[in-house]
């Protein structure tokens, strides 16, 4: 038995509000988005820029609660720009010996990065059963 990597949570099509090359790195997100997507501060996340196709990894930091922050910091600010739509996803490692039910939230924000809709990907990692559940 081994370990395999699966989606923990996803923020789908958030709008970049700021890009700061001089900041020391990371993506700053509104804590309401972090919580809804099941992320943790300092957790590694992948970012896919829907607008320009750029893909990169960094870690997330909480911004102002309710402020709608989606700020790309450091060198990554060259890859995503204000107004770009991005997807942010976190993954986790699961031991095959303990596979079972797993739920991953998919958060869809509005244009001001407020939580508009939350769905869940629900699966059983042991059997492969899968469904999308609307909340």
Q: What can you see in these coordinates?
A:
This protein has 135 residues and is mainly beta. The chain has one domain (3-134): Barwin-like endoglucanases (Beta Barrel). It contains 1 helix and 10 strands. The chain has one helix at residues 31-37, and strands spanning 3-15, 18-20, 26-29, 44-49, 55-62, 70-73, 85-95, 101-109, 115-124, 130-134. The chain has a 10-stranded mixed β-sheet. It starts with a strand and ends with a strand.
Secondary-structure element string: EEEHEEEEEEE
**Inertia-based shape:** globular
Output the radius of gyration: 15 Å
**How are the strands of the biggest sheet laid out side by side?**
2-6-3-5-4-7-1-8-9-10
Care to count the β-strands? 10
Helix content: under 10%
């Amino acid at each position: 038995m081994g370990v395999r990597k699966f989606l923990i949570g996803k923020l789908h099509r958030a709008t970049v509000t700021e890009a700061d090359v001089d900041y020391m790195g990371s993506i700053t997100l509104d804590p309401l988005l972090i919580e809804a997507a099941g992320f943790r501060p300092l957790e590694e996340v992948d970012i896919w820029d829907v607008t320009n196709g750029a893909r990169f990894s960094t870690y997330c930091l909480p911004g102002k609660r309710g402020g709608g922050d989606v700020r790309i910091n450091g060198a990554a600010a060259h890859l995503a720009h204000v107004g770009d739509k991005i997807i942010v996803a976190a993954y986790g490692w699961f031991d095959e010996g303990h596979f079972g039910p797993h739920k991953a939230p998919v958060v869809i924000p509005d244009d001001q990065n407020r939580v508009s809709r939350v769905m869940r990907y629900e699966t059983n990692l042991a059997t492969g059963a899968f469904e999308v559940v609307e909340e």
